[in-house]
Design brief:
mainly alpha
């Protein structure tokens, strides 16, 4: 249970930083590409939280890649 909690906290903090760096604060500011990127990031981040067999790096690397492509 503690591992799930810690994984969730790490990914939550990563997502907050990612969204802030992308410069979007409100859903109304999102363009279509931003919305698709946001949905992809949320889906990628949810996989290691729900499945403990997936390493955390399998979410961190794609999220950072999508953020760098978006910025």
């Amino acid at each position: 249970m503690l591992i799930s909690f810690l994984r969730t906290v790490v990914l939550y903090l990563l997502l907050i930083v990612t969204v802030r760096l992308m410069g979007k604060r409100q859903i109304g500011e999102l363009e279509v590409t931003d919305l698709v990127t946001t949905l992809l990031i949320s889906e990628i981040a949810s996989l290691p939280i729900t499945n403990q067999d997936i390493p955390l790096a399998f979410a961190i690397v794609p999220v950072l890649t999508l953020m760098s492509l978006e910025v």
